[in-house]
Amino acid sequence: MPTPSNPAPLRTFYGRRKGHALSTRQKNLLKNLLPVLAIELPGEEGSSLDPEILFGPDKSACWLEIGFGKGEHLAWQAERHPQVGFIGCEPYVNGVVGLLTRIEEQNLSNIRICHDEAQPLLAALPRHSLGRVFLLHPDPWQKRRHEDRRFVSQENLDRLAYVMVSGAELRIGTDSSQYVAWTREQMARRRDFRPMTELTAAGSDSDGLDDWPPTRYETKAERRGHTATRLIYKRT
After folding, report:
1. Beta pairing class for 111-114 and 164-174
2. How far apart are alpha carbons 204 and 211 in whole angstroms?
């Protein structure tokens, strides 16, 4: 599959950018902490974003979470992997505030935030710059006419293949059986990713994935009687 050095134009954003009203503390976090951690993407075409500049030379790798929700998984990973620099992408303001709250409370210094969709960031990252990518419970866009809105697409997989190092993991979690089938179909068309593991969330610890904590989305899914599936692919 092709790996673009100049990715295709970005897609229209679908979804909410803001939910319920923010508290005074949350507004202060957006005003004071977000500017410190926010990633400024290069405006010049052809220029790239260097993770070493974001985190310094002491980080052994850079990992990305696409759509981090309220940040519980990202903060969990960052706390347990202080040697890794983490980038989180999230356009939803209330989700960003959730992560900022965890960063402040847990005193985390190895997270940077892209307050937007992932595509602009992926277009700016240099080749072979990411050691792991998380895509946990993305919007499944269930209707057939909305299939082109799903993040797992050949266009986005091209971008990921370009920025991920050889051997890097792509972790995808969803409680939508439709999205699982879609992901399998899309990934089967790739030569640059190979499947490693597929299991239900309940089986993660016993299958050696104790570094994949359950998220609130998985908990909600279980309450609704749904089963969350975890898929791992390796960049070849």
Report:
1. unpaired
2. 9
**Other C-beta atoms within 10 Å of 156: how many?**
20
**Angle, vertex CA 61, rays to CA 5 and CA 235, nearest 5:** 55
Contact 135, 68 (CB under 8 A): no
In this model, does residue 11 exceed pLDDT 50?
A: no
Q: Where are the domains of the chain?
A: 24-39+51-235
Please report how the helices 93-106 and 72-80 are oriented relative to each other, as an axis angle in degrees rounded to 10: 30
Which of helix, strand or coil describes residue 134?
strand
Cα(233)–Cα(193) distance, integer angstroms: 6
pTM of the model: 0.88
Residues written for the chain:
236
CB 220 within 8 A of CB 173: no
Residue 39 backbone dihedrals phi, psi, to 5 degrees: -85, 130
Residues serving a catalytic function are 139
Per the structure block, which two tokens stand in for 14? Answer: 């679908």
10 Å CB burial of residue 140 (0-12, 13-18, 19+) is buried
Q: What is the pLDDT of residue 173?
A: 95
- 152, two tokens: 């797992």
Distance CA 235, CA 212 (A): 19
Shortest CA distance to 79 belongs to which of 59, 107, 56? 107
Q: Considering the domain 24-39+51-235 in this protein, what is its CATH number?
A: 3.40.50.150
Q: How far, in Å, CA of 199 to CA of 209, rounded?
A: 10
Q: Residue 167 has which token pair?
A: 């051997």
DSSP single-letter state for residue 30: I
Predicted confidence (pLDDT) per residue in 155-184, tens digit = 999 999 999 999 999 999 999 999 999 999
